[in-house]
Amino acid sequence: MNFRFMSYPLDDLAQNALIREPEFQMSSAAKRTAYPLRAIRYWWVAQALARELNRKPQATIVDMGAGHGQMRRYCAGLPLRLPAVDWIGQTSPGGNLRRWVRAGGGM
User: Fold this and answer.
1) Under a CB-based contact definition with an 8 Å cutoff, are residues 82 and 57 in contact?
2) Is residue 96 part of a domain?
3) How many Cβ atoms sit within 10 Å of the Cβ of residue 67?
């Protein structure tokens, strides 16, 4: 059995300042903790994206479950740097799809 996710750095949760901003949809109590459990789903996907994008840097991310852009916002606050990538996602519940093009070294 392969538990690759067990090797992902947890520091990303503690160092991600964007998940502590008011716009991030998470309780204020969770935002005050170093390792908020509510952010684990974003952390896990971000680590998988980083691994995959380092292998295939020309990929396009289509974020079909986007409601408020939480995943994209989480990735933007990561201390790790992802390669430049197109990110397509919904801007708000019931909203239109929006395409963001991220420059290398940040969102």
Assistant:
1) no
2) yes
3) 15
pLDDT value at 95 more than 60: no
Residue ranges making up the domain that contains 43: 4-102
**Amino acid identity, position 93:** P
How far from 43 is each of 12, 83, 96, 97, 98, CA to CA, in Å?
7, 17, 25, 23, 22
pLDDT, residue 105, reads: 39
107 lies in some domain: no
Supply the pLDDT for residue 65. 65
Rounded average pLDDT over 9-36: 89
Element (H, E) at 43: helix 40-55
Q: In total, how many domains does the chain have?
A: 1
Residue 53 exposed, middle or buried by CB count within 10 Å (0-12, 13-18, 19+): middle
Identify the band that residue 103 occupies on the pLDDT scale cut at 50, 70 and 90. very low
* 85 domain-assigned: yes
Give dist(CA 71, CA 67) in Å, integer. 9
Whole-prediction pTM value?
Answer: 0.71
